[in-house]
């Protein structure tokens, strides 16, 4: 088997996936308070072993690829580097930044993308619908600003401490359009409440439209892949 295919063997892939999940579990356990020193040592040893194995994998991928520089700066190359770099940086930086670097270990989860075809289809769907999504995003930003201006003029006089400016109103718009509804800022005037109803109706559309765009793109890509697979099987 060619060297570049060694890491794609089912056994190696399974071990890699296990190490990723194991590392995430250890990271979560490490945040628990009042852990015994023995548990701390075990977690430290586990982290060292996992990083060592991922480092060997990263170096092997660089060694086995033809265009090494292209791999290093590719998406998967950067993900593989992100999975191991925080461990080595934590030994040479001020300890006050150690907590932030430990959070970067979660970048190791991104290594799962390498082994999931569904992520590839999703990325292709985003690329296929990027123009529609861009137009929709720009339109959404316009709606956000107009809604902030509207609620400001409805509620500023009644609640000057809540809706002090357009920027404060933007926070209300984001919370309302996403239907989160924290309740920290809400309208009390009749006009403001009617305006809020309109904004909520628009918010439902803001969620539904991009979902439909991406879903249709995913369906098109899946149909195309099935067509290609069918034609290949018929040729055989």
TrEMBL record:
The superkingdom of the source organism is Bacteria
Its transmembrane ranges are 12-32, 71-90, 133-154, 166-188, 194-215
User: Which Pfam family is one of those matched by this entry?
Assistant: Ion_trans
Compartment(s) where it occurs, according to its Swiss-Prot or TrEMBL record? Membrane
Key word Cell membrane present:
no
Q: Where is the Ion transport domain?
A: 16-225
Q: Which UniProt keywords apply?
A: Ion channel, Ion transport, Membrane, Potassium, Potassium channel, Potassium transport, Transmembrane, Transmembrane helix, Transport, Voltage-gated channel
Q: How does it sit in the membrane?
A: Multi-pass membrane protein
Q: Where primarily located?
A: membrane
Q: What is this protein's record name?
A: Ion transporter
- Specify the taxonomic lineage: Bacteria, Pseudomonadati, Pseudomonadota, Gammaproteobacteria, Oceanospirillales
């Amino acid at each position: 088997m060619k060297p570049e295919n060694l890491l794609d063997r089912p056994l190696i892939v399974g071990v890699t996936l296990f190490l990723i999940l194991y590392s995430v579990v250890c990271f979560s356990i490490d945040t628990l308070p009042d852990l015994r020193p023995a548990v701390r040592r075990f977690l430290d040893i586990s982290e060292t072993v996992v990083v060592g194995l991922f480092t060997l994998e990263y170096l092997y991928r660089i060694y086995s690829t033809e265009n090494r520089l292209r791999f290093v700066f590719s998406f998967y190359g950067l993900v593989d580097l992100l999975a191991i770099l925080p461990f080595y940086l934590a030994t040479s930086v001020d300890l006050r930044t150690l907590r932030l670097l430990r959070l970067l270990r979660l970048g190791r989860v991104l290594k799962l993308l390498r082994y999931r075809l569904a992520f590839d289809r999703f990325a292709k769907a985003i690329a296929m619908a990027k123009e529609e999504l861009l137009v929709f995003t720009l339109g959404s930003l316009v709606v956000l600003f107009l809604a902030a201006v509207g609620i400001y003029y409805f509620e500023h006089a009644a609640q000057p401490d809540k809706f002090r400016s357009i920027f404060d109103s933007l926070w209300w718009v984001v919370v309302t359009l996403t239907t989160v509804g924290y309740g920290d800022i809400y309208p009390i005037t009749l006009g403001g409440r009617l305006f809020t109803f309109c904004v909520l109706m628009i918010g439902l559309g803001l969620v539904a439209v991009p979902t439909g765009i991406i879903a249709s793109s995913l369906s098109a890509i899946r149909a195309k892949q099935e067509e290609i697979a069918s034609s290949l099987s018929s040729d055989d």
